[in-house]
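Why run this: before we spend reagent on co-expression, it is cheaper to look at a predicted model of the complex and decide which construct boundaries make sense. The entries below are exactly what would go into the expression plan.
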Amino acid sequence: MKIKESVPQKIFHKCNVCFMVLMIVVTLYPFMYVFFASLSNATLLMAHQGPLWFPIAPNLDAYEAVLKNKMIFSGYRNTVIILAISLILNIVLTSFGAYVLSRREIMIKKPLIIYIVFTMFFSGGLIPFYYVVTSLGMYDTLVAVILPSAINTFNLIILRTGFEGIPVSLEESAKLDGAGDLTILFKIMIPLTLPTIAVVILYYAVATWNAWFHAMIFIRTRSLYPLQLVLREILIGCDTSIMENGADLGEAQAVSETIQYAVIMVATMPVLMIYPFLQKYFVKGVLVGAVKG
Amino acid sequence: MPNKGEVALKALVQSSSLPIKKSCLVRLKEDIKKFKIVYMMALPVILYYLVFHYAPMYGAVIAFKNFNLADGIWGSEWVGLQNFMEFFNSRYFTRLLFNTLNISLNTLVWGFPAPIILALLLNELKGKVFSKTVQTITYLPHFISLVVICGMIQDFTSEKGIIVQLLSVFGFRPQNMLNNKNLFVPIYVISNIWQEVGWSSIVYLAALAGIEPELYEAAKIDGAGKLRQTLSITLPGLIPTIMVMLILRVGSLLNVGYEKIILLYNELTYETADIISSFTYRRGLQEFAWSYSAAVGLFNAVINFILLILANTISKKMNHTSLW
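The model came back. Tokens follow.
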């Protein structure tokens, strides 16, 4: 059934499309500005007024300065190390937890759910948490940024929902064939919920990549700083002095601008590059989580 | 292959044939024996929550003590509610409470309807490809790290920043916007909406997709216009989702995260920007007033907990929608 649109409807649709185009521009332009600015000549950029639509006198000086920087390099390296260890720990512990919570017949299921979900509603606070972590001797080690975020309760619930969706009969026939719990988990549950596993891994990976606060409060040694903490120092602390040497003050200030933009690009590139391909998995996770609350 | 009913029946018979006298502990022992591997899997999970969630809850007793590192949690002397009293009577109390509520309510009032409106408008788009493109792009900022977002905010709102330049066209006096205490909340709220509006719209889009198309067909036949359809079908279809989201938000009204605040505020804007959690961080970890800031943090956690329970109870009564 095709009904001809009335005039107000036509106007509405036109406006709606315009609004959406505006949304795209508002969302993307800041990133494009950063990109253009990072490629621009520092002094000319300082003098420039109004929006940028292309780099001014394009050059790669800022990127050169960033890539030469030892902190950026060690930050990247530390983040990759943290990411690798965290992800293994995350996925093992989360799938263990999800498996236990998806057992129907086990006695501690109910108390365990309450035990876990309660932590979403109440916390002891930052100071006691800090005390616990430091008194375990984790201060100034990478363990302090890895272990405390080993399990995310929200991700645990997502994975449990996935596990519960697997027909019981599959498990029972596997048990008849003599399969133990570990076999069921690794040979049936995980292979059959790969899309959900992918969602959970992605959530953990993004969270770990972006995390900075625990590193800030627990890590003192600069060579252990993860990337985000290095970024914070350069972007928020306005501390680009670690990057420039021997430039006069005015020029230094100008250069520091383009360096900041280049740093943003270098740190955000991995996320921007993989995001379009993985986007649909992210969305799936929200929906699984939303259904179960 | 036994069917489900048979399995359930068997389980029932088995469980009822257990001697009733057996104590909980004995039954647990048997359960552990029977599901040894499952319990072994549960162990690290239980330990994780014990160490990183429950131990800090227990450690919160330092709020009632005059804690010093040398004596440890147990060795430090009890001071009762002194730390709380000191906080309630300090000039910070009203300021922090006001700022936390102010930032939270502004985020709620401006930020809560935004994704709903976006979802409704996306739903009206005809081109599916265009709609998908808009969605993909608006989700993006959610994944950019807070440090980068705040770095961008700082650059854009500095005296020579692009936002200041654009605003000066409308007669805005060039200044470093993050140093102006009256501008902190708008910057915080607007950047929040910018970062999260697309991502938050997902749940509403899913709810919209769940509304049965027959309803619209029937309404069309009854002669309902587009506006009428939106009011009578679309919005009622969204209400349960909106309610759940609203409960979550109201429940966390005083639970404003410190991360973004710490990245954006400075001494010049403490007056409007400093909230309970950022104050806890500063007092506790930068000035080492452990017990005092633990008290402030505990006060905040208790209020959060009460708010969440309240919000849930109210919504249960009104709407029969509840989080648990």
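Chain A touches chain B through 93 residues (CB under 8 Å). Confidence is low (pLDDT under 50) at residues 239-248 of chain A. Bring this page to Monday's planning discussion.
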